[in-house]
Design goal:
Blueprint: E1 4-7, H1 11-19, E2 25-27, H2 28-68, H3 75-97, H4 112-122, E3 127-131
Parallel strand pairs: 1-3
Antiparallel strand pairs: 2-3
Helix pairs in contact: 1-2
């Protein structure tokens, strides 16, 4: 069976590596499992960070509200808007850092999503290799 190659600087490798270290020579089934574990770990981290930020932000907001007698605003709305704007800025920064030039078109191996679809469709666990 053919061995496919995936790049180390991709979003799915970052997620798989976030959960556990990834071998450079593995099969697609193990790799997909590690990607899902990374998604789950990242979601838990986001929920925990949001809870801590909301707790700290609400306390700071209450102190500032008492000190300056400002109009009462909803702290949850302020936190949501701050997180949203931060995510947009981080996303734009990553987009411009990783912007690719549209040069010559060359034949590329299938990516992670198409390999995962092929795995589920054919019910096979073929080998993949991770490279730089």
């Amino acid at each position: 069976m053919k061995t496919y190659t995936l790049k180390r600087n991709s979003w799915h490798y970052w997620l798989a590596d976030f959960a556990d270290k990834v071998d450079t020579d593995t099969d697609i089934c193990t790799y997909i499992r590690k990607v899902f574990q990374g998604v789950f770990a990242l979601l838990i981290l986001i929920v925990a960070c949001t809870a801590v930020a909301a707790f700290i932000g609400t306390g700071v907001w209450n102190i500032l509200n008492v000190l300056f007698f400002t109009a009462s605003l909803n702290p949850a709305g302020i936190i949501f808007i701050s997180v949203f704007l931060g995510a947009v800025l981080v996303g734009l920064n990553e987009y411009y850092k990783n912007k690719r030039t549209h040069g010559s078109v060359e034949h590329k191996e299938p990516g992670f999503v198409s390999l995962a679809y092929r795995k589920f469709k054919d019910k096979t666990c073929f080998r993949i290799r991770i490279e730089e």
